[in-house]
Amino acid sequence: MSAPLRFSAFVMNTTSHILHGAWRLPEAQQTRFNSLDHWVELAKTLERGKFDYIFFADVVGLYDDYQGSWRKFVESGLQIPSNDPTVLASALAYNTEHLGIVLTNSILQSHPFDFARKISTLDHASNGRIGWNIVTSLSGNAWRNFGFDEITAHDERYRWADEYVDVVYKLWEGSWDDGALIQDKASGLHGDFDKVHKINHDGKRYRVEGPHLVAPSPQRTPVLFQAGSSAAGRRFAARNAEGQFIVSPNPAAAKALIDDTRRLVAENGRAPEDLQFFQGLSFVIGSTEEEAKRKAAELDEVLDPNTIIAHAAGGLGHDLGHYDLDTPIGDIETEGTRSTLAWLHEAVPDREPTVRDLARLRSHHGRIVGTPEQIADRLAVWRDAGIDGVNVTNATIPGSFTEFIDHVLPVLRDRGLARTEYAEGTARRKATGRDLLPDSHPAATYRGAFTDS
Amino acid sequence: MSAPLRFSAFVMNTTSHILHGAWRLPEAQQTRFNSLDHWVELAKTLERGKFDYIFFADVVGLYDDYQGSWRKFVESGLQIPSNDPTVLASALAYNTEHLGIVLTNSILQSHPFDFARKISTLDHASNGRIGWNIVTSLSGNAWRNFGFDEITAHDERYRWADEYVDVVYKLWEGSWDDGALIQDKASGLHGDFDKVHKINHDGKRYRVEGPHLVAPSPQRTPVLFQAGSSAAGRRFAARNAEGQFIVSPNPAAAKALIDDTRRLVAENGRAPEDLQFFQGLSFVIGSTEEEAKRKAAELDEVLDPNTIIAHAAGGLGHDLGHYDLDTPIGDIETEGTRSTLAWLHEAVPDREPTVRDLARLRSHHGRIVGTPEQIADRLAVWRDAGIDGVNVTNATIPGSFTEFIDHVLPVLRDRGLARTEYAEGTARRKATGRDLLPDSHPAATYRGAFTDS
User: Which residues form the Luciferase-like domain (chains A, B) (predicted)?
Assistant: First the structure.
């Protein structure tokens, strides 16, 4: 329980990712997302702070309409434009040595044969520092961008994801044996044919012959992340993920979720600690408590409740844009939104919560305001609840990260809450001491499974 | 006719691209293809030489079996492993300022919505230096990697390509009007909703709602290349391409092909010069003719005729591996191979050509051996035949390029056959004086075509 926390920078290749409106702050530079310099500078900053990961969220479509339209998304920069993160990774890898690069990629957006090849190429290019955040897309527009009439049902999406990861595991772990790449100039033998295998996958959605076109990269399979909190999502994470991104309302809730999920991990035959939990938190930092509170008030000043609601509604399947911000949530609840909004009643127990309360909670949720010492006190409580790391949500880029690095991390290091140096090696080795997935992981079953070439 | 030639470095993210066996030369470093440093160093070298493009060929599957198996490909490193080129581009862009980066991407491998987004992201990241070599995949294994039983018929592939480019043109040219991205911190207005449009593409293979998720990049549509020489391929190039990669056996044949294709370009309502031709050539350079000839002999020593035949057979649809190298071609010809092998009879008119002649011709084809001055003489003849540029095929990386840059380009510059400086601006501006496609290009028809948001 006394291991240092790990730190991940939660970003998206867009202007307005989560704390909508914060891009208007004078110091905010996230409007520069089109610039490669912007991202390379951030990666170098994070490596200076010895962050473990830069974690790119992503979407491949708009959220569901708000006030009957997608106008709000364009006008407020709510994840549109949103650029592809994967194609930035090699520039970030070239300019850093240790930083892990976690890329979100939906099973919807790319064929597993092509995706596996891109990731393997990047894992070589980065000397083994690539992670993959496995997602199934949530918005109808995303599905309609890829030829579907509507969102594939939730459980069916996870069956699809099961097959998708099966294909890429076969390519990454089973298609090439160790030692297959020879490159001997004297004999002219470049590869050992008996160590390279077609996978001949034949499933419900995919048929893939193989072989994988890329020789084994340092990690073979990238470090696997997942964020789903539904039953199917947690089952998937328990089987596959090495890192889970959680947004628990408080340390006690995190502890319950972690304990419960780790039981599922064990039921899958994996070691419970093979799944690490990263809690999403944002920080408002002051040299005094008063300064921190003043900065938090300044942030609240620019945060836009309507945009925050538009984003939240995207996950509810109900257009909250038709209601005034002061509408009681009780007047809105439908069968589809009831369970999702239950936590709002918990958070505002003393009166009937409103739409505005939802916006406030979404933006304050996971926010820690205080001096570096106060923040360290709070992070110690989170660590004791069992989280392995923090996914640092930003209000401004690079400000949220530079302030955290310059003011909070030194205090955390003094208290043993943060590492003082990077470990050597691949992203997985830094996290677990191993370059490759352990034998208990389902991907490992494909090692040596394809003996005919 | 007296414009300087343009130069492109023809490479692939693999060990053995075209001159199979050359990787065994002591100075050859192409076995380092897994290394990002290798590619960044090459890009910097090419920029030092003021090359216009680094042109990445690519495949997404093995060639057809040779001697009844794919053993030969693995053993000789014939385009396996082959890594993805697209994900390298941002590192190359970050480390250069002028070099154009041309990426081959098959219509088979990625969905046009995802592909368009990756390319737009890279065109932003490179300040407008991305090109796309449009291909339809040729090997059965590639199709079986993507779920098909067999190769889609040739003409149907081009109909598919027609729809594919239609989708990406709509996203690149029609989805966002100029001035849609506002990013005004004072007002909080990030984008002009009335200038962003869904495309609602509904075609035979794709349905794509849109909008494009990326705001217009410097070139919007990347510089478009094509290499097909079939009737359907030439029709496609005449309609769409801005650069065509050709491998003509001699300047006269190039002139005939260029004149004929430019007629087709004009028939499509485009200016004939809007399609530029890059001839594939390789160079063996000596300070004396004798030294050049000796180096050519050393190269021939390591070139492997069987691997070259295995590669050639991949385009013939007939397994030439079942024949001895001295088998007369006349004993092999089938309906499928006859037309393709006709040029071999032309090239070896005095006797019955053999399989070995095919290998020799494939590796000598487009090879110029001599002193820098002799090479310049030959390039002047090629230029007078109407080519706009040379796609420099390598025997070794980086040697083939450093020798060309250090010894041949200075002579070419003295004679006005090569530029002395880069022009400013995007890749398209360097090539044509414009950042965007001209109005006569079919992609331009989608500008302003989607007026409802």
Answer: 28-388
pLDDT (tens digit, 9 = 90+) per residue, B232-288? 888 999 999 999 999 998 999 999 999 999 999 999 999 999 999 999 999 999 999
What are the tens digits of pLDDT across the range B353-391?
Answer: 888 988 888 888 799 999 999 999 999 999 999 999 999
Distance between CA atoms of A373 and A427, rounded to whole angstroms? 29
Longest dimension (CA), chain B: 80
Q: Which residue has the tokens 């030489």?
A: B49
User: Which two tokens mark B423?
Assistant: 């022009």
d(CA A145, CA A213) in angstroms, rounded, equals 28
Residue A63, in any domain of the structure: yes
Is A163 within 8 Å of A203 (Cβ atoms)?
A: yes
Enumerate residues 6+ apart whose C-beta is below 8 A from B327: B354, B355
The pLDDT score that the predictor gives to residue A335 is 63
Tell me whether strands A130-135 and A100-106 are parallel, antiparallel or unpaired: parallel
* pLDDT tens column, A392-404: 999 999 999 999 9
User: Has residue A72 been placed in a domain?
Assistant: yes
Nearest-by-Cβ selection for A190 from B75, B89, B214: B75
Q: What angle do CA A377, A378, A383 make, to 5 degrees?
A: 100
The predicted structure's pLDDT at residue A339: 66
Q: State the residue for tokens 């343009």.
A: B6
CA B244 – CA B279 distance, rounded (Å): 8
CB spacing of A215 vs B81 below 8 angstroms: yes
Q: Which residues pair with B285 in a beta bridge?
A: B370
**CB-CB neighbors (< 8 A) of A145 in chain B:** 113, 208-210
CB contact under 8 A, A94 and B124: no
Q: Which residues contact B276 (CB under 8 A, 6 or more apart)?
A: B6, B242, B243, B244, B388, B389, B431
Cβ neighbours for B392, distance < 8 A, ≥ 6 positions apart: B7, B8, B9, B10, B51, B281, B282, B283, B400, B401, B404
Structure tokens at A314: 């995207």
Task: Name chain A contacts of B181, Cβ cutoff 8 Å.
Answer: 81
Q: How many domains are contained in chain B? A: 1
Domain assignment of residue A357, yes or no: no
Q: Which of A354, A370, A372 is nearest to A362 (CA)?
A: A354
Helix axes B355-364, B305-314, angle to 10 degrees: 90
Does the pLDDT of residue B339 top 80, yes or no?
no
Determine, for residues B70 and A453 on separate chains, whether the beta-carbon distance falls below 8 Å: yes
Specify the pLDDT at position A205.
96
| Residues whose CB falls within 8 Å of the CB of residue B115, separated by 6 or more in sequence, listed in order | B105, B168
Which of B64, B83, B183, B199 would best serve as a mutation to test chain A binding (most A beta carbons within 10 A)? B83
Give the C-alpha distances (Å, rounded to integers) separating A79 from A33, A142, B113, B308. Answer: 11, 13, 16, 49
Q: Which of A74, A198, A302 would you mutate first to test chain B, the one with the most B CBs within 10 A?
A: A74
Strand pairing class (A243-246; A367-370): unpaired
Range of the domain at A239: 6-299+367-445
Nearest to A21 among B69, B87, B188 (CB): B188
The per-residue pLDDT for B358 is 87
> Looking at the partner chain, which of A88, A90, A114 has a beta carbon nearest the beta carbon of B109?
A114
> What DSSP assignment string belongs to B220-253?
SSPEEEE---SHHHHHHHHHH-SEEEE--SSHHH
CATH number at residue A277: 3.20.20.30
| Contact criterion met (CB < 8 Å) for B189 and A75 | yes
* Interchain proximity B77–A31, CB inside 8 Å: no
Chains A, B: CB contacts under 8 A, how many? Answer: 240
Residue A335: inside a domain, yes or no? Answer: no
pTM: 0.97
